[in-house]
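Two proteins follow. First one:
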Amino acid sequence: MNIINRCIVAVAAILAAMSCTLAGQSGNAGKSAESKLDNCIKVEIETSLGNVVVALYDKTPQHRDNFLKLVGEGYYNGVLFHRVIKNFMVQTGDGNSKNATADSLLGTGDPGYTVPAEIVYPEYFHKRGALAAARTGDEVNPERRSSGSQFYIVTGDVYSPQQLQQMEQRMADMKKNEIFNKLVSENRKQIMILRHKKDSVGLKELQDSLIATTEATYAMKPFAFTAEQRQAYTTVGGTPHLDGSYTVFGEVVEGMDVIDKIQNVATGKNDRPIDDVRIVTMRVLKQ
């Protein structure tokens, strides 16, 4: 179904509902990935399955500084990897998980605050090893603010060029739908007036206008994977469908084999490891 047809369906659904009363820097292209991270602050994460070192990006300073604050406070000491999905990601940082029983429902613990989104896209994306902040969904969090403590490390999968092209098209359509749905929300009052008047001609004209605005808005900034993303996703892998929606604020520079150990553990209900895997401690490494 193309965007026009999807938009028509979306408008029809919304009107029906109204009748019824809602998981590399451009200037350094010649440098290796390692050299780009030389001056980044690095943190060692000691887990029960081994040690991991992450570099924190400078272009996401609020996430970097918050992460360092929590490391310094010992907030992460003892927390579980409470959500592990093979070929996707491993998630941790829930402060309530430290002494959680086997039947505890985890995933809502945090320090009591959120962090403003710092989505530096497409420079920072969800390649394998990316460090990103978890958050609640768009329906309750349209600003895409990050959890104050929970984060995930991407494991992901490798995609063929054909698969990546198909995903690119789906994500482009999703972006158009987001634009269209926002326009519908902004014009809800007018839609209700036209509907109350049973003005089908007026509704059709408004629909056509919203579709045209959607296409024009999308054309100003169309979605497309960069050459760097294509290279990463077709070689080392990642989770491209998360791109542009979550704050990526660092990456693994040592110990990705440990992350692979974690992603391969047996899991039970709500993707929680059956045998606890936890962060023992974290420490900031000297430059």
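Second one, unrelated to the first:
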Amino acid sequence: MAKKNAKDETIINVDEMYTKTEQFVDKNRNQLTLFLGGAAVIILAFMGYRMLVQLPAELAAEEAVFQAEHYFAMDSLDLAQYGDGFSAGLEEIMQDHAGTYAASRAAYQVGVLNRDAGLFEEAIQAFDQVALDDDVFGPMSLAGMGDCYSDLEDYTHAAEYFSKAADAADAGLAGKVLAPSYHYKQAITLIELGRTSEAKDVLSHIASEHPNSRLYPTAVALGESL
């Protein structure tokens, strides 16, 4: 009989819990409906923005940048940067399609063109508009800024940006390709600053983490000479 009472009591407790849940839902039905409705609106708004705004913007930017990148690849640098009178140049795409992947690539290429022309301040401004979350163009743009500061003999900023570029490359998909050269440039600028101990640490990092890099023997030799 005692076992039967315990079983009955258990059933009653479950029923009470279910009833309390129902009561909570009934009591807060309006608030729950608003919450769920609001979540649905946010999801739909995001999907709508993605489909109706973001994707068309990306497609338009890719279409606009096609000719400019073709000129860039062919070393028709003025046409690439400023356009040909019919197709937009990289400068225009960088401004008119800001926020797109194409505009980020255009900004990197404008940075390269300005850096190679000795327009270092302009190059830094262009590199700074590249999306840094990109595994390839992010590290490359940071290294581009490092190059500019190095040419300006601002080795403090150069070392800083080479360090950022190397760390970003190490964390990304192109680490084995990009990171060793950025670490090596960082080491060279640290040597210019007289920060020999830090330079040796960077060179040791290349030796230990990038043993297959073409810079491995150079990094080891330079580290041993310091």
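SUMMARY FIELD: The longest helix spans residues 29-73. Confidence is low (pLDDT under 50) at residues 1-12.
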